[in-house]
Each structure stands twice: as structure tokens, then as C-alpha cells.
Amino acid sequence: MRVLLLGGGGREHALGWKLAQSSLVREVVSAPGNPGLEEVGPTLPDLRIDCPEAVAEAATAFDLVVVGPEAPLAAGVADAVAEVGIAVFGPTQRAARLESSKTFAKETMRRAGVPTADSAAFVDPGAARSHLHGLPAPYVVKADGLAAGKGVVVTSDRDEALRWVDRCFAGDFGEAGSKVVIEDYLEGPEVSVFSICAGGEGVPLAAARDYKRLADRDAGPNTGGMGCFSPVPDAPPDLVEDVNRLIIEPVLGQLAAEGTPYVGFLYAGLVLTGEGPKVMEFNCRLGDPETQVVLPRMTSDLAAVLAAASQGESVDMEVSSSTEAAVDVVLASDGYPGRPTTGLPIDGVDDAGAIPGVLVFHGGTARSQGRLVTAGGRVLNVVGLGSDLAAARHRAYQAAEAIRFPGMQYRTDIAGGV
Ligand code: GLY
Questions:
Q1: What is the CATH number of domain 325-402?
Q2: Which fold has domain 187-309?
Q3: Mean pLDDT calculated for residue range 213-220
Q4: What atom of ligand 1 comes closest to residue 283's alpha carbon?
Q5: Taking Cα atoms as reference points, which of 225, 220, 182, 210 lies closest to residue 270?
Q6: CATH class given for the domain over 119-183
Q7: Quick check: 93 pLDDT over 90?
Q8: Measuring from atom 5 of ligand 1, which residue has the nearest CA?
Q9: Residues ≥6 apart with Cβ < 8 Å to 102
Q10: What strand order describes the sheet that includes 2-7?
Q11: Residue 149: what pLDDT?
Q12: Whose alpha carbon is nearest atom 4 of ligand 1?
């Protein structure tokens, strides 16, 4: 099978690496890809992956298209690929509203009886501001649409929450902020759970925990994720099965009943509250960086499962994970998550990758005049594998210390004290 993988971040490098391990897969071609994915297979750097027509045309040379990021899904790429008769793993544009509209996700959850924070949506800044004045801290304010993980603030400072409302309506997050969702704060540890979904059923993968704030001890601004680990020792033992049964499948059933069957990864960002797991957000893709720890632990053939699921039938396959632990430390550029400095030379990637039990997944990297250089905010993921989280963490930080680029920043507390 020839697979076209859309995307070029750390998540896609991990997806490509895993898909290429299947005996069913002859070639993984990624678009646009990145220097890490170039080691997996050919890349199509010029394919406009958010353009449904362009992707559909390219897809006719492949047996399966796997969509990594949310933007092509929200643009309708999966619909266009299916229309030309090529198998695609990723939800339709309508189903992808679970991520591209927080209001749609909330309404679907309410109809499906899925536990989530109470919320209210606003298109009027004045109404949003007065709603905030009536709420206790902490405040959670979200741009309704896709904002690359940057449209959310969680703060105990009401002025900051009010300023966030203003930023949304001022267009700081583009069209995504023309509607604002204000929701109750959920108290408890967070955990990310993923299912491979088709035919109204989900097959759960291992759980992971992500670190969203930039700096140690959860200081600094929210980011796309600065590191993560899997398994999650403080999660209940049957968490992923329970979430799949009580949250994922009711949502899939609700969508199907509304004429919107869902095929693709579904990622539930959860808070383990005193009343049980509640959904903070849904994403219609795998997490980044969580994929970089979940897939190295997966012992099943990912390509076989995705190929079966792309037919839309329920996937009658067990997906298993090793008992090994994985820890990912994200190496980020100076200026991230605001304006990252890019184009700087990176050294030590081969040395890091040569450490036993270490994988290096590229995120924001590029080649310039034969050199590996920084090309984005989250540059590299160094993943340590080990018999437990402490061993995996030790390897990840050994690898982080082997890599250098000017202004490199990373958290030193990923998987610390768990
Ligand atoms: N790690 C958070 C996300 O992928 O949205």
C-alpha cells in the first residue's frame, strides 16, 4: 500500500515512522513533510494540504490518505479525497466541527449526555464581558474556532480574562475569535485519551499527559504542548476503555444519528474531576506531542487498523501497547509561543538519536545549504523509552542535552515527580 500522509510536524513524523513499520506499507509519502520524514520516505513539499482539490488530485496515486493536522480536515480535504474514490482516514468537514467549533462540540456533547464543563457562547463582546463579571475565578475563555492551540486562556485574573475577550473580538485569532466560549473551570489532573474511530465505534489507544504551559511548574503562556508522557500512573486503570464507552462512542453515535458519521482519530482532552472524567475539548486528530509517546508504545500495526477504519466499517481489531514508558521533551525556539526565531543551525541530533532507547521526532526543522536549521516554534521532540517513567525521563533529558541551537528552550520538569 502507498500512503499519503498530510502534515509536517512532530506528530506526523511519529505517524510516518509508525506507518512505515507495517509490512502492508510499500511507501509513506508525506506532504509537506519535514527533514525527519525525509528519512521515512519521499516528501511533497509543495502540495497545498489545506486545498481539497489539490490533495484530491495528488491522492489518486495512493491507496490511503492519512490526515495529521486539523486544518486540512476543517477545510474539507477528507471529503474531497473520498469523492475521488481513495480511502482516507480523517473525518469529513462536518464531523471535524467537533474541533473547529467549540460551540458545535458542546452542543453535540450535551445531546449525547457526555460530561463536560458548563459553558456559554457569545458573539457580542459586552455580553461576554458581563458574563465574566458574574463568574468566580478561575476563568476559561476560548476562541470558538481553530487557533492552533493559542486561542485559550485559563486565568485567575479577571482583567486578563476580559482582555482575552477583547483580543478575540479584535481579531487576534482571526475568524476563530468572532465567537467566544466561556466555560466553567474543571478542577483536577488532565489526561489525553485517543480513539481510532469508524462505524460508530472507537478503539482506544494509550493515555498520555501533556504539559501545555511554556515553563517549569506550569508557569508562562499556553503552548501547543511542551512535553508529555505515557502511561499516566494516576489515571484509573480502565480509563481509556471507560472513556471510549462513556464519552467517545456516545458522541460518535450522536453524530451518526445526525447524519455525520465520524471516521478518524478522536482525541478527548479530559479533566479527572471528583465526579469522574469530564471533557475539556475534542480534537479530530491525534495530539502533538502526545502522538510521539503513544505511537512508540503501540505494538499493533497502525497501517492495518487505519486502512480498515478508512472503509467506514467498525474496526474489529485490538490495539495494544507495550508496558514500556515514554517521555517526550519538546525543544522549542526562542520566542515561542509568540514569534519564534528561526533559521538557526541545529547540532547534535544524530548524537541524541544514537542514545539507546531514544527517538528524535522533527517538528519545526528545515534543511538550508545542507544544514539542519530551526523552522518553527516546536523544533524537535526527544523521546526516551524505558521500563518505567523515571528511566524514560532520564533518556529523554540525556538526549535534550545532546542537542544545541541558539535560544533553545525546554522544560526541565516533564514527567518529574510522577
Ligand atoms: N497537545 C495538545 C494538542 O495536540 O492539542
A1: 3.90.600.10
A2: D-amino Acid Aminotransferase; Chain A, domain 1 (3.30.470)
A3: 95
A4: 5
A5: 210
A6: alpha beta
A7: yes
A8: 287
A9: 119, 121, 142, 144, 145, 181, 281
A10: 27-32, 2-7, 64-67, 87-89
A11: 72
A12: 287
